[in-house]
Amino acid sequence: MTTVLLSLGSNLEPKRYLQAAVAVLRQRFGEIRVSPAYLTPAVGFEGPDFLNNAVQLETDMPLLELNDWLHAVEDAHGRDRSGPRFSDRTLDIDVVYYGDLVMEGPKHLRIPRPELKHAFVLKPLADIAPAFIDPVQQRSLAQLWRDHPQYGQAFETVDLAP
Predict the structure, then answer these.
(1) Of 87, 90, 122, 124, which has the highest C-beta tally within 10 A?
(2) Amino acid 75: pLDDT
């Protein structure tokens, strides 16, 4: 089994779509760890604020199969890929870490994800997997978060409970 860390985000009916994503992930993978959801501004374009959270799960599903499965989940929840890459979205689920794998592959797949530099990705991951070691930097997520420029700032949380 491989430890996988996912970053989830939505800025179109975000509470609804993050709740749905967590439910689908629980149904497929069983016990998962879910971070708080944080309200953050859109990055790279003008749009409504995002809700972002993270999920940790264990799986024996190969990475490319998992990535395709996650894209199908996004599509089933109204993800529109016809516009610019940075745009409003109902659901975005990215594999940030797949065990200690480091790779660049097809379909913009990079592990670890370069978006890790953003607080909206790193903070939720550090919340649920502080001891996880980044295979590139050889530092824990807790250490990476403590060194982030936004460490110590208050982030608004949103309860995802129905």
Answers:
(1) 124
(2) 75
